[in-house]
Specification:
Shape: flat
Helix content: under 10%
Oligomer: single chain
Strand order of the largest sheet: 1-7-3-4
CATH architecture of the largest domain: Sandwich
Distance between the termini: 13 Å
Largest sheet: 4 strands, antiparallel
CATH class of the largest domain: Mainly Beta
C-alpha cells in the first residue's frame, strides 16, 4: 500500500502570494499498481477515485485540489482493496480508553515548498478531541497523528463477524 499527499501550492514559493491561488484540476501518475482510494481527512470518508486508469508503471488519477490544500490518495493492491469496507453492525460494545498520541507537526519552512517537522508526544488521552483542545503546542497545527490503544473484545464477538483490524487515517 502506498500513500500520496498531493498539495496545491499554486506555483508560488512566497507566503504573501498564496491568497491569489486557484484550484487546480490535473492528472497525477502514482508509482505502483492497485486501486486508488481518496481519503477525506475532514469527514473520514474513503472512496475509490472517480476517474483513474492503470498506465505503464503506475496509476493515473484525475484530481482537483483547492488552493493551499492537499488530498490523500492511497494506492492499494487488489488483495488489500476489500479491507476498506464499512462495518455497519457489531453485536456488543467495546470500551476503548487511554489513546496514546504522537504527532508529527508540520511547520512552515523558509518557503511554501519547505516543511519543518517536529515530533510532539501528547501521551495518553482519555477521549478523542481536536488537537487544539489537547495541547497549546497543537493550536492551528497540521501534521500526522498516530493513535494507538489496546482493548479486549468481549466473548460475544463471534467468528462470523467482520475482522476487527482497522486502519484509522
Amino acid at each position: 500500500m502506498s500513500n500520496y499527499f498531493p498539495y496545491n501550492y499554486a506555483g508560488t514559493d512566497m507566503y504573501r502570494e498564496i491568497h491569489d491561488a486557484k484550484a487546480v484540476a490535473t492528472t497525477v501518475t502514482l508509482q505502483g499498481e492497485g486501486v486508488p482510494y481518496v481519503l477525506d481527512a475532514w469527514t473520514g470518508e474513503v472512496r475509490v477515485a472517480e476517474s483513474w486508469e492503470a498506465v505503464d508503471g503506475g496509476v493515473a488519477v484525475d484530481v482537483t485540489i483547492a488552493p493551499n490544500d492537499s488530498i490523500i490518495i492511497v494506492l492499494a493492491t487488489d488483495e488489500l482493496a476489500p479491507a476498506v469496507e464499512e462495518v455497519t453492525s457489531f453485536d456488543g460494545s467495546v470500551e476503548v480508553a487511554g489513546w496514546n498520541l504522537f504527532v508529527e507537526r508540520w511547520l512552515a519552512g523558509e518557503t511554501v515548498l519547505d516543511t519543518r517537522k517536529k515530533m510532539v508526544e501528547i501521551g495518553v488521552i482519555d477521549e478523542l478531541k481536536p488537537w487544539n483542545q489537547l495541547s497549546k503546542h497543537l493550536a492551528n497545527a497540521s501534521g500526522e497523528g498516530t493513535y494507538t490503544a489496546t482493548f479486549t473484545m468481549p466473548e460475544s464477538f463471534s467468528e462470523g463477524q467482520p475482522s476487527i483490524s482497522t486502519w484509522i487515517m
